[in-house]
């Protein structure tokens, strides 16, 4: 069959969430778009992150029943219909599948080429029976899971985030390891639904957070019954009995412990998916950490951009979405926005949630000569008290003039509250600006406002002390 030549404005390589999002926006802006790749399972079952959220929501309802006596309401022990929970999860995830489908994108005007893509040269991509010579290319191939080096894993097998929601029986004793973003969220949810859960190792998402906030989250997770072994490493695994697993866990001191379970769930680290692209043929720079890009997501080939996990940056849907917006603006000549990982929120959607944006206190002290740390506690908030959600705080890091450098919050709905602070950081706002922010009363939003207002309390105290010192000197 003769090769067909396509000459679209934009060729997007990679049909995951990031690739499909930028393809949809590009065609809406009037560009001709070819999307190369396959969405795989996501086109049929929806995105795994939606499934995780649905599962955690079911677990939150079970936890609310257990907490009801605290408010004078007795409902008895929560009865868990695990099959029903999983039906809810699959239904919620499947509801997102039409947005990922080839049919929807085709109806919008995106041409789909379901084939592997490889660069033939700096201006051309080969994909099946097609040769694509686009004005611009966007690589959005994502990342591939990289299983940890656990001896015996190939023989014993494990669950992953793609297979865990196919379970019909609740795991009695679930072991979880790996650095995926959903590690703690799933661990808490399974605990709330009645499983005994052990987490081996520290998830990367937790290691990137403020240590003080992380310690509060770990304390609350342990209080719910979660067994956290953050300083341990899974080294080997073997079968135990007919259906169980035995995990050998190494400690920092060199010793080895045995942890038995019924199933092992691995949420692995990932590596950028670049192997099949022939990037060298296109003059695109890359290494083991991913494709090298500028602050506008352009590669070393000026016709080619890259977004999402393939660039090796923060691995999240919202990060890839923002990068896609920057690329589309650059291609269409509509803006000069630049990618900045500090402006992307880092979220662990547990209860309490942990969220941050910008610099943590530790990094800010290392990078700046003088900073101010402004705080406000959930326990002082008029919504937190009646709801019994008094654990946590909001911490604002700013420089001496009051410019916000970073925000960390741990507590109820922190994953939602971080949004306004992400905007504040992106717009270069100060503590003064945010002290005039008017959230509804009573609301958790007031906690951040109160923290911002503390900047002026400190300034007033300093001013009063200066005046008193001057008066004392004058009277002497």
TrEMBL record:
Keywords: FAD, Flavoprotein, Oxidoreductase. It is an enzyme of class 1 (oxidoreductase). GO terms for molecular function: oxidoreductase activity. Its cofactor is FAD. Residues 9-324 form the FAD/NAD(P)-binding domain. Its EC number is 1.-.-.-. Gene3D superfamilies: 3.30.390.30, FAD/NAD(P)-binding domain. PANTHER family: MERCURIC REDUCTASE. Residues 345-451 form the Pyridine nucleotide-disulphide oxidoreductase dimerisation domain. It comes from the Bacteria. It comes from Neoaquamicrobium sediminum. This is NAD(P)/FAD-dependent oxidoreductase. The keyword Chloroplast does not apply. Belongs to the class-I pyridine nucleotide-disulfide oxidoreductase family.
């Amino acid at each position: 069959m003769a090769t067909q030549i396509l000459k679209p404005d934009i060729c997007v390589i990679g049909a995951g969430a990031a690739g499909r999002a930028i393809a949809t926006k590009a065609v809406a802006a009037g560009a001709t778009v070819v999307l190369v790749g396959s969405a795989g399972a996501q086109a049929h079952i929806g995105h795994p992150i939606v499934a995780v959220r649905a599962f955690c929501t079911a677990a939150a309802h079970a936890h609310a029943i257990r907490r009801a006596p605290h408010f004078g309401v007795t409902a008895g022990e929560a009865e868990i219909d695990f099959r029903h929970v999983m039906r809810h999860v699959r239904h919620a995830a499947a509801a997102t599948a039409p947005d990922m489908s080839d049919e929807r994108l085709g109806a919008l005007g995106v041409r789909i080429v379901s084939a592997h893509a490889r660069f033939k040269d700096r201006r051309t991509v080969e994909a099946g029976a097609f040769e694509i010579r686009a004005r611009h290319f966007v690589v959005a191939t994502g990342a591939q899971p990289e299983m940890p080096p656990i001896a015996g894993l190939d023989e014993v097998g494990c669950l992953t985030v793609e297979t865990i929601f196919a379970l019909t029986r609740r795991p009695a004793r679930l072991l979880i390891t790996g650095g995926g973003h959903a590690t703690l969220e799933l661990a808490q949810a399974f605990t709330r639904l009645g499983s005994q859960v052990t987490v081996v190792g520290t998830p990367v998402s937790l290691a990137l957070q403020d240590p003080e906030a992380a310690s509060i989250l770990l304390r609350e997770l342990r209080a719910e019954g979660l067994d956290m072994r953050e300083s341990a490493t899974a080294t080997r695994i073997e079968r135990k009995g007919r259906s169980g697993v035995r995990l050998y866990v190494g400690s920092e001191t060199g010793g080895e412990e045995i942890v038995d379970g019924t199933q092992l769930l691995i949420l692995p680290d990932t590596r950028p998916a670049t192997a099949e692209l022939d990037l060298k043929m296109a003059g695109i720079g890359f290494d083991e950490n991913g494709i090298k890009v500028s602050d506008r997501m352009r590669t070393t080939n000026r016709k080619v951009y890259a977004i999402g996990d393939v660039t090796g940056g923060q691995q999240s849907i919202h990060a890839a979405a923002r990068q896609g917006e920057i690329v589309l603006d650059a291609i269409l000549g509509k803006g000069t926005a630049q990618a900045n990982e500090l402006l992307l929120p880092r979220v662990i959607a547990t209860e309490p949630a942990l969220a941050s944006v910008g610099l943590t206190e530790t990094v800010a002290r290392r990078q700046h000569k003088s900073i101010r740390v402004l705080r406000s506690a959930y326990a002082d908030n008029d919504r937190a008290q009646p709801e019994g959600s008094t654990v946590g705080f909001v911490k604002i890091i700013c420089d001496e003039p009051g410019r916000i450098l970073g925000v960390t919050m741990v507590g109820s709905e922190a994953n939602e509250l971080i949004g306004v602070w992400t905007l504040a950081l992106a717009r270069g706002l100060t503590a003064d600006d945010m002290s005039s922010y008017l959230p509804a009363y009573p609301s958790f939003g007031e906690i951040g406002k109160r923290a911002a207002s503390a900047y002026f309390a400190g300034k007033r105290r300093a001013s009063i002390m200066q005046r008193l010192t001057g008066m004392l000197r004058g009277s002497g």
